Amino acid sequence: MPLRANVYIVPPTPWELPNTGGKQGGIWSPTSLTLIHGEKEALLVDTPITISQTEKLIEWLEKTVPGKRLTTVYITHGHPDHWLGLSTLKNKYPDIRILSTAATLEHMKYDVRPGFFENAWGAMFPNGQIDTNFVFSEALPASGRFDIEGHECHAIEVGHSDTRDSTILWVPSLKLAACGDVVYGDVHQMLGEANTTELRNEWISAIEKVEALGPEIVIGGHRMDGEVDGVFHLAATKLYIQHFEKLLPTCKSSDELQAKMEELYPNRFNPSVLRWGCNVAFGLPMFEGLQAVFPQSPSASLLSPAGKEWGDTS
To answer: I want to staple 181 with a disulfide (CB 3.0 to 4.6 A). Which of 153, 221, 260, 277 is the partner?
Structure first.
């Protein structure tokens, strides 16, 4: 039986600035979760953050593929907003296999290390919103290949995008690329970790690796509900990075860079995420609340940038 695909959008949700006594940080961008399914089995790509978000995902799964069994979850990269819901999901589906690359597994564990999680993700989504009985993936072999009902799925490592060790899931029979944060929809891109020209160029190269596959369906990790999952997102994601790179040397401050980017992208959702990248580009904390926890980190970047990471004093 041919495979089919659906996309679930985790709605925007508020979060708190860590270590500020409950001050609101803004809205977390909507997150795209891809469901691939055959006659009897289903595969999910990525999860939400919180318990309540994941419970709503489960309701959607049961309505969308009734009678089919969720057998597999694939995690595209280590950012916790793409996998912290695994605990809640596994409580509902105890037999699921959870897969990722070895590098993603390492990143997952790093971002919930003791002393970091409590002051970062745990503080951003406090008061029991996150299940802290963390569930991790198992690492795929180097081939990155597995299947659903005999249809091959390829975990493809593409390098640095909005974070290190990014991957996409390629489903050849559908010509579908579930891209995680390698590709964005009409949502401001997170450039806080692609914080050098070299890393921004690596992100562009990652997108070009997706282009080379010849996809017909491209699902970005953060996009608005109702957007078409078209190949045009590849060029649009590249152009956004190129605009940021071109504008940066013309600006004297984070404020100026943000203003110029918003002139070019007045309709993209969640400019607070743009702010993170602009701040880091000028050596500032990504957002309020970080520098107080790890003052030794020059730009207190939350989401595991390459090289010196927030809280990494080695």
So the answer is: 221
